[in-house]
C-alpha cells in the first residue's frame, strides 16, 4: 500500500531556502586571498548564490554539467556549493594540493566545462591549461581590482560576473537522486577515484550529521571548518551549518597556520571546529609556544586519519576542549562513525574515556557496518576479531565515476550483498565502537595471520627519538610476509636497530615484532599528507630480510 | 546526471536495527494495566519486536494489511509500532477515547484485519464488535494470567502469541514510500480523516525532529512521551528516542494523573516530556497542591493547542523548566514549527522571551510554510498580516485515505501549487515565528475583515471569574458576522454581560469586541478535549443579536 505523503524531493536548495528564511542575520566570516576578513550574512549569501545561478545560465552551463572548483574555504566557494548544485549542475571540488598530474587527470576525467579558481591556484592552472581541452572558461574568484595578469584563456572575474545578475532565481525541483557534487578520493592507495553525491545523499548526511550526539549543529555554535571544502565537502559542514543557522568562520588559504587559526578562533569566538590531526598538532604547538589560548572553543572533531592520543590529552588537559574523533571516507560523504558516550558511561575514569576517544567512534544512524573475514562471513563485535570493514547506507557510494556499477565486478566497490568495501581493516567492540587497525592493502599477512601495520607504527613513534615510522610487509620465504619497520629519527639521534627492537619488545605481540628496522631521512607522503605506503613499498621493492 | 550513491531505502526497521546494535542496554520503563512498572532494554525490545513480526506472519497478516491498535503508551504498543511497520504492514493507531461511533467508523473505514487491544479498551470493543465485520481477530495486550473474560470473538493473548515465536526475523527492505502507519485526525472540524504515513516520511520526521534546536534527542535524555501513541505517533518520540538511544518512560493509561506523572518523573529521573496543555496544567496544579517537585526535568514540549502563557511562566519560575511550544497536526506527522531561540537573542528580557515562547515557533528544516490571502497570494512575514497557513515537505500529507488525491479537487487538502492547506489561520513575524490566530472555520468574518476567535477567548479567560470561553461568529444583518462570546463562569460567580464587556474594553480592538455575551453551564468538547465549535455553533443556530 502506498502512503499518502508529499513526494517533496530532498534538495540542496531547500537548505539554502531554509537558511535564508529562518536565519537571514546569521554571519559568514571569511579569510580570502583578496580580503583578510570578509563578513556577510546568510541573507547576502542567499542573494549572491542566486546571482551565481543566473550567471551560470548566462555562461551556458547546462543541467548535469560538471563545474570545477579549485578553491579554499570561503564564502565564494560556499556560493558555488549552493549555486551550482542548486541549479542542477555538478559542483566538482578539486584539491589544488594534489600533484599537478593528478589535478590534470581529475579535471579531464570529470570533463569539467568551467573552472572556478582561487587567485593562488592560477599558476597551477596556467601550467596545465594546454592539457585541459574540455575546459571552456576560467572564472577567477576575486574582484576586478585583484584580477591577475594571466595566460589562461577565456578568463572571467567572479565578482564582475555576479554583479550583472539579478538576485531573483527560482531553484528548480528535480529528482533527488540527481548528481549534486563530485569529489575524487585522496589517491592514497592508487589513482584518485570519482565519487558522485546526490541531493538526497547530501541532505540526509546533513541531517544525520547534525544530530545532538553526532556533530550537534546548532544556532548556538560558531563553526570553523578547517578541513578543506575540496576534501569531502568539508565533511558536510557547509550544509549542516546552514541548516542550523550557525555562524560560519572560513579560514581561506591559511588553513594550516597556527597563528592565523588562533587569531580567527579568538576574535570570532569559534566554539567548534573540524580538521585532520596534523592541523591540530600545529595549533597545539603554536598555543604551547606562545602561551595563547582559545577559551571560546569547546569541541573539535578530528578525522581523516587516526587521532593520536596526545591530541586528545593536550586538548583536554591544557584547553578543556573535547575531541570528537570520527571515521569516514570520500565514499561515505564522509560520516561513518563518530565518538559519543553512551548511557551508563558517566562513571568512566578520565583514562578510560580517553581510551574510548582513541577509537574511531560508533556508527551514526544511517550507516550500517559490519566486519567480515576473507570469505565475506560476518565477524563478531568483540573488540578482538578484525576483518574488512564494510558499510551501507543512503550516503555511501555505489560506485565510481566511469567505472563499473555492477556489484561484485571489477572496479565496483560494492559486493554482491550490497555492502561497500571500505578498504579498511577494523575491529568493533561490544559497545559498537569501531577501531581502524589498518588498510586492507597495508595489512601484513604473515603465516596466515593479519598483523596491523598501524599498531607497529604507533608503538614505534612512542619512542622519544622516533620522528615518524612506517611498517610494511616484505617477502619472507617461510612466513610469506614479515613486518619491516622504516624509521625517521629525530635530528641528532643515533638509536640503533637493536635499541628499537628492544623498545618494542613488550609493546607488541611476537607475531607483530618487526624482523628488521631500516632508517631513512624521510618517508614519502601523498598530496594530502598521508603516509604513501605504495611509494614506500616500491622504493623497498628489492629489500630482503637479513638471513639469521 | 544520476549520482552514484546507494539506493538504501529509509526504513523504520533501520531505526530498530540501529537501536539494537548501538544501544542494547538502553532502558524502556512502562506502566501497563497488568504491571505498575515494567522494565526492559532495547535488546529485549528488539527481540520481542521480531517475535511479533513472526507472530503476524503466523496470523496470516499480509504486506499492506492494516493492523489496528487501541492502546496506551507502553512497550507493547511500541513493539507494534516496529513489528507491524517493519514487516510492511500498516500500524493503524486508534484513539480509544473518541466517541464509540467514531471508533467504529474509523476501524471500518481503514478495514483493519486485526486489532491489538489494551485490557481497558475491551469493554468498548465488546460494544462495537457486531459492527466490525472486517476484523478477523482481537489480540489482548496482556499475559495469560490477566486475560479477561470477554465476549469478543477470536480472542488471543499477546504474550502467549509472542512466546511461541523465534526472536530471529530479517526485516524486509522495500520502497520507502510504502505505507507504514495510519492515524485519523482528531475530528475537531468534522469527521476524522485518515492520514497514511510512509517509512520515508517517518524516518525523515525523526531525523528532522531530533535536531539540536528542535527536540534534541540524545542518549543523555530520559524521555516521557505523555502525548498518546494513538495521537500522531506520540509526536514521533518512539522513533526519535530509539534513534538516539534515550531511556524511555511510558506512562500507560495514567497519562492525565498528576500524582502518577510526578512519581514516574521523580523515580525514573525524567529529563524531557511532551504533551498537550491540559496535561501540564494538571501536573502543575498537583505540584502546587502537594509541594512536590520534579528536579530532573529540564524541558517540556507542548503542542496540539495553544500553550497558555501561565504554563510557560509556572514551569519557568517554579520549576526552572523550559517550555518548548510546537505547532503541528496529524497531517504533518506532526512536526511543523517549534520554539527555539536564534542567534542574537541572548539579550532578551525574560518577559520578551516568554512572549516569543507563546508563539508557535519557527519552521523546522523540512517544512516550508507560507500564509496566503483569499486569492492564494502569499502574505508578508511581518507579524501583522494573517491568512491561511499552508505547508509543504516530505512529512506532510498529500491527501486522505479514501478521498481524492488530485490537488485542488474536493476532498484533497493540497492546492494546485502543491501546498497543503492546514485549515489554520496565522501570522508569521519577521524572524519567522508563527502565530496561530484561529482555524479557518472558526475565524469570524465581519465587514470583510477577519477577527480571531482565539484572541477574544484569551482576553475573556484572563478575567478571574471566567472559567472557560468560546467566541463564534453569528449572523449580523449589517456586518455579515459579529463575534458572540460564550462564557462558563467559575462556581459562585455572578458576573454580568456588562462587566465582561467592560473588562474586555481596552484588551481588544473595537472590531473584535463581542456584540453580546451568553452564559452557559458548560461548553461542548471533542473527544480529545478541544473546544467543539462545530457543536456550539449548532446549539446556538437560532441565536440572534439583540437589536440595540
Ligand atoms: N579516524 C580515522 N582513523 C583512522 N583512519 C581514518 C580515520 N578517518 C579516515 N581514515 C582513513 O582515511 C580513509 C579515507 O580517506 P580519503 O577518502 O581521503 O581517501 P584515501 O582512502 O586516503 O585515498 P584513496 O581511496 O584514493 O586511496 C579511510 O578509508 C581510512 O583509511
Ligand atoms: N501549538 C499550537 N497552538 C495552537 N494550535 C495548535 C497548536 N498545535 C496544534 N494546534 C491545532 O491543532 C490542529 C491539529 O490537531 P489534530 O491533527 O489533532 O486534529 P484536529 O485539527 O483537531 O481535527 P480535525 O482535523 O479532524 O478537525 C492544528 O491544525 C491546530 O489548529
Ligand atoms: Mg580510500
Ligand atoms: Mg485538522
From TrEMBL, chains A, B:
A GO term, aspect molecular function: ligase activity
Pfam family, one: AMP-binding_C
Keywords of this entry: Fatty acid metabolism, Ligase, Lipid metabolism
Residue span(s) of domain AMP-dependent synthetase/ligase: 17-401
Superkingdom of origin: Bacteria
Transmembrane segments: none
GO biological process: fatty acid metabolic process
Record family assignment: Belongs to the ATP-dependent AMP-binding enzyme family.
NCBIfam families assigned to the protein according to its UniProt record, in alphabetical order: PRK06187.1
Name by which UniProt lists this protein: Medium-chain-fatty-acid--CoA ligase
Biological classification of the source: Bacteria, Pseudomonadati, Pseudomonadota, Gammaproteobacteria, Alteromonadales
Gene that this sequence comes from: alkK
